[in-house]
Amino acid sequence: xxxxxxxxLPFTITVFHAQNSQLYYSGKFLNSKNKSxxxxxxxxxxxxxxxxxxxxxxxxxxxxPFDTLVWNQGKNSHVITNYQLRELKxxxxxxxxxxxxxxxxxxxxxxxTSKQNKDDFSIExxxxxxxxxxxxxxxxxxxxxxxxxxxxxxxxxNHRTLTLNGNFLTSLDVKSxxxxxxxxxxxxxxxxxxxxxxxxxxxxxxxxxxGPDISSLGFDGSPYEYDQNxxxxxxxxxxxxxxxxxxxxxxxxxxxxxxxxxxxxxxENYVEKTRLxxxxxxxxxxxxxxxxxxxxxxxxxKLSKNFHGYTFDFAFNYQDNKATNTNRIGLFNRVYxxxxxxxxxxxxxxxxxxxxxxxxxxxxYADNPVYLFTQDSKYRYQNNQRQYSFNxxxxxxxxKLNLNQSYENNTIENRDQYQPSTHGFSNGIWNERTxxxxxxxxxxxxxxxxxxxxFKNDFSLNFIxxxxxxDVYNSFTNKKYLYQRTSQDxxxxxxxxxxxxxxxxxxxxxLGNSFYISNTSLKNNYWLPKAGAYLNFRRIFNWSNYxxxxxxxxxxxxxxxxxxxxxxxxxTTLLNAENSYQYxxxxxxxxxxxxxxxxxxxWKAGGRLNIGYKISFEGEYFSKKITDDIxxxxxxxxxxxxxxxxxxxxxxxxxxxxxxxxxxxxxxxxNKISWFKYRDIVDRVTPEYQNLAVSGFKDIYKTLxxxxxxxxxxxxxxxxxxxxxxxxxxxxxxxxxAGMKIIADPTPDFVMKFNHTINYKNLSLDINWEWKKxxxxxxxxxxxxxxxxxxxxxxxxxxxxxxxxxxxxxxxxVSQIPVDFYDPNKNVQENRWSRYGxxxxxxQYIQKADYIRINNISLSAxxxxxxxxxxxxxxxxxxxxxLWQANKGVDPNQSFYDTDNGxxxxxFNLPSFKTMGCIVSFKF
Length: 924
Known about the structure:
Layout: E1 23-28, E2 41-44, E3 50-52, E4 58-62, E5 68-71, E6 76-79, E7 85-87, H1 88-95, H2 107-113, E8 129-130, E9 141-146, E10 151-156, E11 160-177, E12 190-193, E13 196-199, E14 217-219, E15 232-234, E16 240-241, E17 253-268, E18 271-286, E19 293-307, E20 310-323, H3 331-341, H4 369-372, E21 381-396, E22 399-418, E23 429-451, E24 455-474, E25 479-500, E26 505-518, E27 525-537, E28 546-559, E29 598-611, E30 615-635, E31 638-664, E32 667-685, E33 692-696, E34 701-704, E35 712-715, E36 741-744, E37 750-760, E38 763-773, E39 776-779, H5 780-788, H6 792-797, E40 846-848, E41 851-864, E42 871-885, E43 905-906, E44 913-923
Parallel strand pairs: 8-10, 39-43
Antiparallel strand pairs: 1-4, 1-7, 2-3, 2-5, 5-6, 9-10, 11-17, 11-44, 12-13, 14-15, 14-16, 17-18, 18-19, 19-20, 20-21, 21-22, 22-23, 23-24, 24-25, 25-26, 26-27, 27-28, 28-29, 29-30, 30-31, 31-32, 32-37, 33-34, 34-35, 35-36, 37-38, 38-41, 39-40, 41-42, 42-44
C-alpha cells in the first residue's frame, strides 16, 4: 500500500491515536573531570536533540540503535546498541518510587453484604479504640502510642535493608616512547681544519659533529675529566678503539592505578532512601624519562538522601597531584634536545659534575640532560584541589525544580629552576609560581511539561551564576596578578515533540534564547537565540525498520577566555629558534577586562538512514562563524589579550555503522567508520595584528592571515623565478629569499576513524585506528640536527661530491655549478647543512603530516563469581601504536612545547607514549 506522510508545521495541534514506539536511552554522564554535573548537555548527533543531566548526572534522551551521544563539547561519545534502549515508561517506572494501593474498608459495604453477628466481645464494643493514625497493616508493630484512656495508635514496622556493594580496580601499565628522529653514529665532535677532519673535545666548546669517523680514532688513556678513557687521537697499534656512546635518555617505565569504590544503600520497602558513596584512589604515571613521574591521590565522598519527595546530594572531592617536574618551562623539550645533539664521542652518563663544580657537558653552549634533572626537592609541582557541592531537586506533578551549588578551591605550585652553569643561565635561575583558584558555581532550573507523549511541550528556565577568582604570583619578578569574573547566564528553552505510531512520523522542534552578562565583558549579550528541529520517517516505502531522519539547527553563543588559563608560554614568540635556551616564562596576562565577547554562530544540517536494526548511514554539515576571537600579544613589554580575528570553521562528517554482524554462535562483530573533513579560514584580521604569531618562534611561527587557514605556518623560503624554478647562487646552492611567507598548511585533507568490536561469549576484542590524510608540519628538529651534523642524512650524505642543484642562476641560465656537500677545505658553516643557519630554510623542512595509527587494542574477559552479580573483568590493552607516518620525526600529533595552538610545528617535540597494560576489575 502506498504510504502518505503529512508533514506537520510547528505548533499545529493534532490528535494522534497511537501507542508509544519511541525508545530512549538512560544513564549517567560525567564531566571532563569524571564527576557528576547538573545540566551537562548530552547531544544526540543523529537526531539533533539534546537533554540536560540532573544533579546526579542522569539523563534520558530519545535515541535509536547506533545513534551517537556526545558530551563535554564532543570530547566524550557513546554509540548506543539495541539492548541499551527501553521504552520511556519502563525507565520512569524504575526511577519512580512505587506505592501500592491499600485496601479500603467500608462498614457500610460490610453491613449490606454480610450478616450481622452479635459479638459482645468485638472491637466495636471495646472500651478502647484504634485512632485514625493507625496503620491498617500492623502485622509487624513498630510503635504503640496511647492517645488517651480510650484511644491507641499502631505504627507499622517498615522493611529496611542495608546493601553494601562496590568495585575495586587495579591496573599496571608499561610505557615506552614512540618514534624519534634517527641520528648518525659515525662522526665525532669536531670540524675540518686546514683540509683535515679533527676531533675537538668538550673543552673547546665545539658544537658541531663534523669531525672524523670514530672508527679512525682511539683513546690515549691519559687523565681527562671529560672522559674516563682519555682523549681521542688518530688510531695506531696499541691504542684502544674509540667507543660509540649511547646517550639515549628514554627508558621503559612502569606505572599503576588503584581505585576502590564502596556504596552503602539504605532501602525502605525497596525504595532507596539514603546512599553513601566513597571512592579512594592512587595513580602513578611514570614518564619515559628516568626518574620523572607524577602521583595522584583522590578521595571522593557523596551522600544522597530522599526525604518526602525531595532529593538531596552532598559531595566532597579531594585530589592531590604532585610531580617531579612539569614541562611548563620547556624542561623536557630542552632535555630531549640536548640528548639528541650530544655527539657520539661524548657520554652524558659518566659524570655529572666537573672538578670545579660546574656541569660536565660536551660544550658550555649545551647542557648535560642528566644535570638538568638534578634538583634539591623531590617534587617541583603540586596541585591541591578541593570541591564541595550541594544538589537538590523536587517534582510537583509536571513541574520540576533543580538547585545546584558548588565551590572549588585549587592551589597550584610550580618551582621552576635551572642550576648554575646551565646554558643561558650561568648563575642559575629560580621562580616559584603559585596560582590560587576559587570557583563558585550556582545553577537553578525550573521546567514544566505539558501534554502527553504524542504531543508534548516542555518549557524550561535556567539561571547560571559563575564567580571565578584567580591570583598568580611569580617570585622571580615579585609580581602578583589578580583576576576576577562574575558571569550570569539566563537560558529559556521551549521544546515540542510530536509522534504518531500509525503515521510512522515523528517531529521535534526546539526554540530558545539566552543572555550572557559578565563584569569583564565590554558589552553584555541579550540576544543569543537557538533553534533546532528534526523530522523522522519510519518504515519508509513500507519497508520494515527502514527509518530516515533529517535534522537542522542554529545556535548563537557568547564566551570569554578562561581566567584560570595561563598564556605564559606565548613568550616563545619573543625569541628566535636559535635562542630557545633563553625560554623561561614568567609573564602572565595583565587583565581579562575590556574585551569584546567571542561570539559564535553555528549552523548544521544532516540526515540519518537506518536499514534494519544493524546498518546505519549518517552525515552532517556544520559551519561556525566566530567573531572577535581572542589571542595573546606583547605590547610595550606586557602580555595582553586582544580581539584580533574573525574566522569560519566548517566541515563535513559521515558515519557508517554495522552492528552485531553474526559470524557464528555467540560470535559477532560490530563496526563503525567515520570520515571527517574541516577547514578554519581567517575572514578578517585587525590591521595591526595582520600576520600575528599564534605560536612558535619569532623566525618560524603559526600565524593569522586573511584568506588563509587559521594557524598557517610562516617561515623562510627559497627564491624562485616566475616559472617556479629555484634560483642558484654563485656558490652552486639554492638561494635563500629575503623575508618570510606562508609555507605550510597544518589542516589535514580528511581524517578517517575505524572502530571494530569482536565478541565471542565472554570475550571482547576492541580495535580503534585512524588514518589522517594530508596536512603539513615544519620539522625544526630535523633542521637543527642537520645544522650540527647529528642527523642521519648529514652522516650518510656528507661525502657526496660534484652535486649540481637543479635551478637557474640570476641571469636565467641553467645552473651547472658542482658542489661538495662537505668540503674539508672550507669553513664548516659553508657545508650543505650549516650554510643557511640554525634552522636552515624553513621551506626545506616542510613535511607531510599523514599517518596511519592504531590508537587502541584491548581484549577483555568477564568471569562471574558464585553465579551472582559479582564478577571479575580482566582487560589487556595496547595504546598508541604508531604504524606509519610520513614525516621523519616524532608523532605528528604532538604539539610545540605542549601548547594548545602548537600542532604543525616540531621543534624537539616530545615523542608520544606507547602503553601496554592490564586492568583487573572486581565488582562486589
